[in-house]
Amino acid sequence: MAFGEPTKYWQLDSSKVQETEWDEAVSKASTEYRNRMHNLCCDNCHSHVAYALNLMRYNGRTSWNMVHIAVYMLIYGKYTGFGGFLKTWLPFLLIVAVILVFAFVF
User: 73: exposed, middle or buried (C-beta count within 10 Å: 0-12, 13-18, 19+)?
Assistant: First the structure.
């Protein structure tokens, strides 16, 4: 994984797509993204997932993109455990704490 192991996931409902379409779409998306360089801003894991969801017409839609995936992850995503929660939020909280210390002490 380019940015570490997953810390959060969104469990998809397999009844919203036919099984053969699911498998074929995941395979095609993986083939498409096999040689692509993932980056943080433009072409990342969310784009990869959106590509697969568009191919399988998940939930009757073909307009999935990385923003939709990020929003759905925020709303419906579940942490892989307490460690996943800490890995997600601890760096942010430490940065905020340092900023607050500098703002109020200096």
Answer: middle
Q: What percent of the chain has pLDDT over 70?
A: 97
β-strand partners of 9:
78
Closest CA to 28 of 6, 4, 65, 57: 57
The candidate with the shortest Cα–Cα distance to 58, out of 31, 27, 22, is: 22
Q: At what angle do helices 45-56 and 66-76 cross, to 10 degrees?
A: 100
Torsion sign across C-alpha atoms 41, 97, 78, 71: negative
CB 98 within 8 A of CB 76: no
User: In this predicted model, which residue has the larger pLDDT, 40 or 104?
Assistant: 104
Tell me: pLDDT of 19 over 80. Answer: no
Q: Is the pLDDT of residue 38 over 90?
A: no
